[in-house]
Amino acid sequence: MISDSPIIMGGAVRRPAPAPASASMSPLKNGNGKDAKADDNKPAGGTYKGKEHNWALQASARINQDGIWQHVLTVGIIYLTYWINQQPATGQLYDSLTAKYGTFNINLWGTWIVSSAVYWIIGLIFMAFDMNDTLHATVARFKIQPDRRITWQEYRQVLRCVLKNQIFVNLPLIYLVARFSPLDTSSNLPGWWKTFGVYFGCMFCEEAGFYSVHRLVHHPKLYARVHKMHHQFTAPVAFASTYCTMAEQVFSNIGPIAIGIVLMRPHWSLMILFFCSLEIGTLTTHSDYNIPGLYDALVHDWHHYAFTENFGPTGLLDDILGTNKQFKVWLSELRRRDNEGWRRSAREALAEATQ
Ligand SMILES: [Zn+2]
Ligand SMILES: [Zn+2]
């Protein structure tokens, strides 16, 4: 059984760095360089008085923060889908597949097989980096909570749950869409603006739906029954993104996506694009590795660490509704310590050089 307590590997828990004595720093800034708005932990003097967090202490795990590369990755995935759809062979393939298997089977089995395969391939790659020490050493500097590593026993528990949700939740829900609202699988493939518009329309539904349901299941009356299981990992792994109850998988993970798809009814290829890109996103952001060039894993990792902030998938509603204040303050404090450490080592190097 997976215990509720965090997993500590190697016996030693890294101690948080002591807060610097200096109180002469300028006002704290958030990750975007703007002033952090509300900060209960920071008096006017600017010294951090809040709780010490053993989280993202490695500066290398914070290189990938709200950066341009994530947007490049998103636009790249959208553009790749558009480019594939523009190839003459793609249209011919859709016509022949539809003639051979029928729209219903492509909507049901095509969706389930492709989405499950993408999830497992990427999840297994992350799993290899978690469990093989040689591979792990290559990405250890990007691990947000480096003291915590999952065991094989816990991984088995997670994988059983992933399979259960894919078979008993994803498949029936995909069946309902295929049966009652099947998507076009013909060679009438969408152009650039439709591809772009459907992606962001679905993303809007995902942001609004996931944020709302996620905050709801943190309500004390629902948390233990619905959501506590997903929070057993305070330092998650990629496959733990669907380590959750079946109710959470229906209403929180799949429901908002299904609503966007049913409302917009795009070509089947765009539904697969959206589904797979969200899978890549959720696997990456649960991996506990914040690797430059991939999606920013800090936001959701903080949710698993701290429980009470960062409910949404993009951070937009968290920004608007102010449910990420401590997250921003702590990142600002870490950045200030980085700068302080850099200034101190520069002063020491100068003193040594001039002695
Ligand atoms: Zn949660
Ligand atoms: Zn999560």
* Helicity level: 55-70%
> Based on DSSP secondary structure assignment, what is the total number of beta strands?
0
Give Rg in angstroms: 22 Å
Strand content: under 5%
Figure out the total of helices.
Answer: 12
Organism: Cutaneotrichosporon oleaginosum
Keywords: Membrane, Transmembrane, Transmembrane helix
GO biological process, one term: lipid biosynthetic process
Subcellular location: Membrane
Can you describe this structure?
The chain has 12 helices and no strands. With about 350 residues, the protein is mainly α. It has a domain at about 105-330. Helix 3 crosses helix 4. The longest helix is centred in the last third of the chain and has 30 residues, at about 325-355. One zinc ion (ZN) binds near residues 230, 286 and 304. One zinc ion binds near residues 230, 236 and 286.
Question: Short summary of the structure?
Answer:
With 355 residues, this protein is mainly α. It has helices spanning 68-86, 88-101, 103-131, 133-139, 152-180, 192-217, 220-227, 246-264, 268-285, 298-306, 316-321, 325-354.
SSE arrangement:
Elements: H1 68-86, H2 88-101, H3 103-131, H4 133-139, H5 152-180, H6 192-217, H7 220-227, H8 246-264, H9 268-285, H10 298-306, H11 316-321, H12 325-354
Helix pairs in contact: 1-6, 1-9, 2-3, 3-4, 3-5, 3-9, 5-8, 6-8
The protein binds zinc ion (2 copies).
Residues 230, 236, 286, 300, 304 line the site of one zinc ion.
